[in-house]
Each structure stands twice: as C-alpha cells, then as structure tokens.
Amino acid sequence: MQSYEKLLLENKAWASEKVTDDPEYFNRLAHIQTPEFLWIGCSDSRVPANEITGTQPGEIFVHRNIANMVVNTDVNLLSVLDYAVTHLKVKHVIVCGHYGCGGVKAAATQNDFKAVLNMWLRNIKDVYRLHREELESIKDEERRTDRLVELNVREQVNNLAKTSIIQRAWKEKNAPDLHGWVYGLKDGLIKPVFEMKAGTHIDPLYEYDDL
C-alpha cells in the first residue's frame, strides 16, 4: 500500500466513526460555518490548530504559512483575513508561532535559501533587525531563537493592526481582539505573549483616518 492510500483509508474510518457517534454531524457542518476564531499559524506539520486547541471542525478558521507571517503584500493572507473578519465576523484573530520554528532559525542565519525563500525570510530578518540589541544580548543560541519566535509573533500582530481590514472592523464593530501566542513543541502548551484589544491605537502613521 502506498503512503497516500493509507490517508484515504484513515479518512474513511474517521468519517464512519463520526457518523456512528452523531448521524447529523456532517449535515450540520455542510450548512453552517460560524467560527469565533481566525488562526494564523505556521505550516509546520507538528502544529495542527484544531488538535492543540481541542476545537472541532467549524469552530476555528485557519490560515497557515511558513513562520506564521502577516505580510502586507500577501494577497492570500489578506483575503483570508478579510473573509474571516468581514463575513464570518470572528471575534478573535490569533497569530500562533512555535518554539523551534525552522523558518525563524533560517532567517537568523546568513545562508542563501534561493530566491523565493529568501524573499519570505527577509520579513523575519527585519524583525531581528528591529530587536537586534535585545536578541544579541542573549548568549544562548536556543534561548535567542525562542525570543525571536516571540518577537516575530508580536510584530505579526502589529502588522494585523496596520491593515485597513482590522481598523475598519474596529471602527464598525469594536472587534476582533488580536492575540499573539507561541506553542511549545516540547510540552504541548500555548504561551500567550502579546495582545491587542480592539481599538488599540498604534503609530499614527499606520492609522487610517477616512475609513
């Protein structure tokens, strides 16, 4: 049996188990989606949003990319954000990074990862540059990388607040709140590291006054 065929078999077993436990399970999911949360997480296969938060399908709207980035030219991310905030009306947007993130580790090096990855990792290098003094005062490499993971999450939450999507929602609905979390691969626990309540003022240069 090929490895991908095992996935299909597991899917059939999972679907059968769900229907046995609750005959209306898939019928309900097919007709409604009302998640309270948008999760912006890392693509790392060890950080599945539903599993580590104990949520069921339909309860959390998920977008994942390398190192859980909020890049202002990323149309994919922005379209997910707009849909979640404007149409699904989520109450919370969570940026969740994780300790041991390969993308963050790579960005802290001077290695050439070729064109596309270099462009993406440049956004994390900018976070390092902004916090260089603090980071380079940490002598232990693992602790320094862990701190960069936390600071990266914080900067991505700030990037959310800079979007007109979030600012318009704050003005019209006083929601969503923004949260920065970091997941620990070694213990399975989520650590909150940053939060912005709806309506929080940021640098006026990034605030829109004609929404």
Distance between the termini: 56 Å
CATH class: Alpha Beta
Give the CATH architecture: 3-Layer(aba) Sandwich
CATH homologous superfamily assignment? Carbonic anhydrase
Q: SS-based structural class?
A: alpha/beta
Task: Using the coordinates shown, work out and report the CATH topology.
Answer: Beta-carbonic Anhydrase, Chain A
Q: What is the helix content?
A: 40-55%
Query: How much of the polypeptide forms β-strand, as a percent range?
Result: 15-25%
Order of helices and strands: HHEHEHEHHHHHEE
What is the mean pLDDT?
Answer: 97
Structurally, the number of domains stands at 1
Question: What is the alpha-carbon Rg in Å?
Answer: 19 Å
Catalytic activity: hydrogencarbonate + H(+) = CO2 + H2O
GO molecular function: carbonate dehydratase activity; zinc ion binding
Cofactor: Zn(2+)
Organism: Niastella vici
Description:
The chain is an alpha/beta fold. The chain has one domain: Beta-carbonic Anhydrase, Chain A. The protein is 49% helix and 16% strand. It has helices at 3-21, 25-31, 49-53, 75-87, 102-107, 114-130, 132-136, 141-161, 164-173; strands at 37-42, 60-65, 92-98, 177-183, 190-196. A 5-stranded mixed beta sheet has the order 2-1-3-4-5. Strand 4 (177-183) and strand 5 form a beta hairpin. The chain is globular. One of its GO terms (molecular function) is zinc ion binding. Zn(2+) binds at residues 42, 44, 98, 101. Its cofactor is Zn(2+). Belongs to the beta-class carbonic anhydrase family. Keywords: Lyase, Metal-binding, Zinc.
